[in-house]
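Here comes my example:
=====
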Amino acid sequence: MASFKHQETIAIHASPEEVYDLISDVTRTGEWSPICKSCWWHDGDSAQVGARFTGRNERDGRTWETVSEVVAAERGREFAWVVGDGYVQWTYKLAPLDDGTELTEFWEFLPAGVEMFHDKFGDKASVLIEARIEDAHRGIPATLAAIKQLAEK
């Protein structure tokens, strides 16, 4: 089985604050994510630690929603959230470059997520977990390229 972690990095010709403002607006996620088609904040929340949002995902003709909680929100440096009850963590780390920002997207399928998949899907869990790992490997570079394109407009 592949690793439960994956990350990739891209250089963007925009300031870390501009890139952060884009990625921390989860209502725009559908503009760059190949699977998450839309997100919305709960109860007037915004990009701050403890804020919660719902994401609507689509893959292979199937649609599902997840609830996430922001766990890091430091403008120009880091934005991260955990999906569900500690199932998956998504993190964006930003570092200044002379002419912009180095943006790293990091994904980790957490032990609680692996356990939940086994509890929920039984014998099919391993195949479905492997599909999520493949989604991260394909989706992260596509996401970063789309964020770059939007940020550099």
About this structure: The mean pLDDT is 93.
